[in-house]
Amino acid sequence: MKSQRIFLTGASSGIGAATARLLADKGHRVLLISRDLSTMESWAESMASSQVLLFEADTTDSAAMQQAAQKMSSQWGGIDVCIPNAGVGIFSPLADAKLSDWHRMVDVNVKGVLNALHACLDGLLENKGQVIQIGSVAARSVFPNSGVYCATKHAVLALSESLRIEFRDRLAVTTINPGAVNTAFIDKTTNAELRESFRSTFEQGMSSEFIAEAILLAIESKGKGIYSEITVRPDLR
After folding, report:
1. Residue 227 falls in the annotated catalytic set
2. Over the Cα atoms of the chain, what is R_g?
3. Which domains are delineated in the chain?
4. Residue-wise over 155-172: b if at least 16 C-beta within 10 A, else e?
5. Is pLDDT at 237 greater than 70 in this prediction?
6. Which one of 108, 169, 216, 231 counts the least CB within 10 Å of its CB?
7. Which of 91, 149, 202, 227 is catalytic?
């Protein structure tokens, strides 16, 4: 498969960083977007400069997402794949939750995804490109103490289905639905009792690299078939 030009948010850590490394290692070109430029710079030094571009931005800033897409098009001539990976989960019983935490999850997990997609959509359609959404098992189920997070991931899945229906012949759409992944994701939860009760589940979860491999599979299978949805769960052993 020829090198793909890939727009990736949330690229400084976790699934995003693992995905960036793997895609660049496989010869794809990746625009890495994160609020944490210094962290990206610290590990991107080992990657070929021709394979990566760095862009400091928050996905909730729609103008910044437009600028990132424009930078990518100017540098590489277009966009083939958009991966709006940035996401946040803040778990709490609904009765005890802070409204600001609800808003933060909606802003990042829904509005941030919309901002990235809107910035990339024209270029993707021009190139018959691909959208890879990072959903969750929470996109198919609802769990206690995570109702608003689940709602945001249901929204991501609905958006994927809408893109697939409206652009059936012009856009490939894949949604990756991971179960627990061993990252710092749980650390955003301020409810100490819940955070610690969930911690072992996440620590025993999948590696970020495993999710990156699913993303790579979806990208490099295009042309032979399209994975519309991939659910990955921790090994039971």
Report:
1. no
2. 17
3. 5-232 (3.40.50.720)
4. bbbebbeebbeebeeebb
5. no
6. 169
7. 149
